[in-house]
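Fold this: Protein-glutamate methylesterase/protein-glutamine glutaminase
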Amino acid sequence: MDKIKVLVVDDSSVIRSIVKESLSAAKHIEVVGEAEDPFVARELIKKLNPDVLTLDVEMPKMDGITFLHNLMRLRPMPVVMLSTLTTKGADITLQALEIGAVDFIAKPSVQDLLATQKSFQETIIEKVTQAGNVDQKNFKLADTISKTPTRQGTNAPKKYQGCARNNHLIAIGASTGGTEAIKEILTKLPENSPPVVIAQHIPKTFSLRFAERVNALCHIQVQEAGHGQKIKVGNAYIAPGDKHLVVVQKNGALFCTLEDGPEVNRHKPAVDVLFESLTEFANNVQAILLTGMGQDGAQGMLQLRQAGARTVIQDKATSLIWGMPGKAFALDAHTVQLPLAEITANVLAFSQLTREQMKEALYAHQ
């Protein structure tokens, strides 16, 4: 097996050294070069032909976003962003994911590095490995540059009659690189959509900004979930980046609950935590697992299916990284797998079935 060739781009020699040292622990990865600015990076890409780029979001001489635009237009390739955990860093990173970066990792401060070095090493090796295994046939990121932003509600179906059942819930799980997949689903939902709860692997400073950015494009109301918040039709609730999101049922209504427990599958929020909280009323749930690395969500989805939920995974052909949905597939945790573009319409159609029709449809997939 050929090694994954990586080019490290960062203006800090200390960070470049940290990244290089961290990746050198993996025998299947080779750091073939490093660059202190995009102009040097451009020449090294031509010379070294790397498989994956790690890129600082804030760069001198040419900012990371401009460089990424140019890269995706001229030489599309998997890019893992290194992001500062600030509001500015969040906006830049989310924009980078819109342009075509496959994932991001929190950039460690030199002061905190001793405490987080092992975790950083494990995470960056995992993300670079997954990026290096992206199916190039599905990697048409240059196409994203020409897309115009979706105007609020323009994608929403015009003839949706509303859900046939009270408290019907859509639950979505995704990793850090799944922001665009989540957006693809939410922007197509009508204002009377069943409520949506979302667990995504995203830092605290990113979750609110992501909710705000997506809300501006949607017909439904998208927000960061609050503790004790009642779940309502036409709303989507994104777990804060430092809390687990669980759903509880009280007096015939559903509520968000935020928990500050330990990480699960190295994540907080964790998809498994959200999914497992839904098993009590699983027969009124549709759970969706989107593109992303790792296995978080697979076991929770299996429990949901066994408890009577409808479970949907994004198919391999449209997943940039078929890690999480692939693990669910391996466990036979899914009721159905669908291309990303078809998930919203399919889930909405299912939500209009009566309980009897729903049972018949689920039985047909057994």
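The longest strand covers residues 29-35. The CA atoms of residues 31 and 307 lie 46 Å apart.
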